[in-house]
Amino acid sequence: MIKIAIIDDDNLFISLCEEYFKNTDKYIIIPYSDSKLFCEEYFSNSFDVIFLDIEMPFFSGLEVHEFLKNNNSTCLIIFVSNQDKYILNCFDINVIGFIQKSKIHLQLPTALNKIENIFMHSTFTFQTKNEFINLSKNEICVIEVVNRKIELHTNNQIHILKNGKISTIYCLLNDDFFLINRSTIINMHKIISITGNQIFIKNIKKAFLLSKYRKKDFYSKYFSLIKARNL
């Protein structure tokens, strides 16, 4: 399921969204009428998409978006406003749309179709002992070999994958991932800090070691990612 945060101090808009979403099981919806509270709770949640009102007390939608960028968020953003004059200010990294509140019934279905198309092309299938699981790239934190077993760390749990090799899995992933040593793949967007040859990943307490043989390629990719975020 796709996890969506709706951040808007307009309770009527939140109610309209919740009414629309109640007839589908594709989404998990978490509403916030307080942008400051969202920022405080951001690190304890992991959202795929954020509907973000532009005009709010405490932090405006543009300020929240800047907060997300500064914290390397990969969430897709859809800005929301009563006024279309803000549209030109909303083109930025990870922003995929703009909804006018007065046209929500027309524009929300279109926005959701766009979201589903994006996730359809950024979802990976893995086989565990008992089932196949589909995960979006935003759900995957680390894939590593531990005691000859392949562990896949998501935002809130660990899956043991059935057979296979870490190198084979790496070939199936996209450019959002990097093989930092012979037994560990990380999601580049989940990096929260780097100390020496230790890489720290969001939602995981331990550090992961960067091989000296992979260091040059890693930093080339990492700095390209940072540059793209700051455009």
Automatic annotation (TrEMBL):
Chain ranges of the Response regulatory domain: 3-116
* Keywords assigned: Phosphoprotein
Q: Which SUPFAM superfamilies match?
A: CheY-like (SSF52172)
Q: What is the official name of this protein in its record?
A: Two component transcriptional regulator, LytTR family
MF terms from GO for this chain are: DNA binding; phosphorelay response regulator activity
Record's InterPro entries?
CheY-like_superfamily (IPR011006), LytR-like (IPR046947), LytTR_DNA-bd_dom (IPR007492), Sig_transdc_resp-reg_receiver (IPR001789)
Q: Which residues carry this modification: 4-aspartylphosphate?
A: 53
Tell me, what's a Pfam family for it? Response_reg
